[in-house]
Amino acid sequence: MTGHGKHELQNVQIGGVRLMLGGFHEAPGEWIGQQEILQQLLACWLVVDKNDLPLAPRIVGTPGIGKTALAMAAARKRRQELYIYQCTADTRPEDLLVTPVLAESGRIAYHASPLVTAMIRGGICILDEGNRMNEKSWASLAPLLDHRRYVESIVAGITIPAHADFRCCVTMNQDESTYEIPDYILSRLQPTLPLGFPNRQDEMAILKYHLPFAESDMLAMTVDFLQHAHELKLDFSPRDGLNLLRYAMKRLAQHPQHPLSKDQTWHEALQRCLGDDALDLEALAERRKRSLGGDAVPLGLGDFFFQPDDPLHPDRDDDDQHSDEEDDDGGEGERDDD
Length: 338
Known about the structure:
The protein is of the alpha/beta class. The chain folds into two domains: 3-35 and 43-194, P-loop containing nucleotide triphosphate hydrolases (Rossmann fold); 200-291. The protein is built from twelve helices and 13 strands. The protein has helices at 35-44, 67-78, 93-96, 114-121, 135-139, 183-186, 200-210, 216-231, 238-254, 262-274, 281-291, 318-337, and strands at residues 3-5, 11-14, 17-20, 24-26, 58-61, 82-86, 98-102, 108-112, 124-128, 150-153, 158-161, 167-173, 192-194. A five-stranded parallel sheet has the order 6-9-12-5-13. A four-stranded mixed sheet has the order 2-3-8-7. It has a two-stranded antiparallel ribbon with strand order 1-4. A hairpin with a 2-residue loop joins strand 2 (11-14) and strand 3 (17-20). Helix 1 (35-44) packs across helix 2 and helix 8 runs antiparallel to helix 9 (238-254).
């Protein structure tokens, strides 16, 4: 079960301003498979010399693949408090840092965000889905992500330095519903750690870990589906498999006196959770390939107004024109013979 923990220090005073701190994130669990990328993330957070600084990497991958779970596992390995900030398109700088709240007494109370709380407490902060956030909000983090390691809250009028033990990372989805992060921020979010799909053995272990009550044949059908989707480069993730299985098991348990067949239930869950397209992965992969252009030669502007063999086509090859003229000469000779 996930939850939020409370620490003894509920508020601090910085620059004459009292900040209310947030609670840390409690999420026991286990990272299964892909140990190399876990070690890479942990290496980013090492400090190997008194003049060294930790890195703030970005973890990239398709939605539902386990980017946040990876960062949470690294935080558990380091035995540090974990804070998660969910980035959105309307995140403002004050949301990221310090938010003023009108207290019951009528006074303004300043609440530290999960990020700022992690900075003060020496914890780890995950900026989740960071590429959904706009440039103005990213700009407020520029000094935190380089050698300065501080933020400035315009709302509270204070500068907040980061604890020496503070660490952070950013997760980013690879989809089209995101902002393009400016280069001056990307240069601070290094290195890039790409998280790929798990292999068959790891994917089975992930599903079994989260759904130990799922029946073996249902697990097998789900893993077969996911692995086939990975082979076709379709973005169905372990999260999709978990949701599919949860729904299927609930449907099986719904009417124990008149149980549905497992195959029928699984296919119903597939359709309800992932849509009609998921019923035929090969057809879906072919449609995706065609929508991305496949192996076709890109069209030029002239292709919209002229036929490929039109002599007026602006991109017509001179060799093609010469070949057509030879064909015309040959045709005239035949007619003369007749």
